[in-house]
Specification:
Elements: H1 3-8, H2 11-44, E1 47-51, E2 54-57, H3 58-88, H4 94-119, H5 124-141, H6 143-158, E3 166-169, E4 172-179, E5 183-188, E6 193-197, H7 198-203, E7 207-208, E8 216-224, H8 230-242, E9 254-260, E10 265-273, H9 279-296, H10 312-324
Antiparallel strand pairs: 1-2, 3-4, 3-7, 4-5, 5-6, 8-10, 9-10
Helix pairs in contact: 3-4, 5-6, 8-9
Length: 330
Amino acid sequence: MPLADAFCQGPNTQRSYRLRKIRNVQEPTSSLEQQAEGLMRSILDYQLFQVAGQDVFVHSLCIFLGIVGVTFVASYLAQRAIGRVLARRKVEEEGSLAVFRRLLHYLIVAIGLTTGLATLGFDLAALFAASAIFAVALGFAMQNIAQNFVSGVILLIERTIKPYDVLDLNGRPVRVQSMGIRSTIVRTLDDEDLIVPNAELVQAVVTNYTLRDRLYRLRVPVGVAYESDLRLVETTLEQATAAIPWRSQQHEPRIFLIAFGSSSVDFEVSVWIDQPWEMGRRRSDLHKVVWWALKDAGITIAFPQIDVHFDATTRELLSVRHLSHGGEND
């Protein structure tokens, strides 16, 4: 209809013309939207693969990846929140915080993966049953790895060993740097990093110097000559050790007479320190304190001596031999 005729036929005719014109413009647009929506549906409904008879589509895989991503973000936020809460409650031990955060991370990730697998349509009961059978078979094939894994979970739950604890491992002082599911990394006094399987920490007898407190006892043996005044020795050592500024004030120094040796009267000097990791340097300092205290008091620090006694016949033979050589020394 020409535009002039439309205006000549009154308002009703003009309104219906405008409606038809708008409808003609919207029809191509709605058609494109339907095509795009159909294409998107075909992409999302595209079957990627099958797992144990279960079809995995694009949309289900996207949901699974989204849940996994949200799980890791939630784990990060939860760890930060727990750190703030514990800090407000004056819980500032780094080892405890690290272990608690690790356990919280594993728990949230396990929940997220379980939820994600459920969205893919997997039967979790059947999946767990199959996983149990697979775990048994894998356990026989990799007994050491499985043993270390279980030991790592035990250590994280029991918390008998935590990061930054000082341990005695096979006669060597070490400090725990980090704890994993399979192994634990420790550092020696020589700044060497050792990778220790978790099973060794669980099954062996391990001394943890920082399990309940950080007190460590230093022992230094010292021997004095037999002609020394034992009361003066004991008093000198007590005064010298009591004046040590770096010792722990929770325990008084201990001086023990432990043995009458072949060449000396043996004492043991004991003091406590608050930092077990400094045992090497503090033991050296304690040796110096004992040395100078005894030196200043005029007390002889004994050393091994051997006295040789000859009977009368042997002395006579030595004298005759000495005279036969004109009195010269042999």
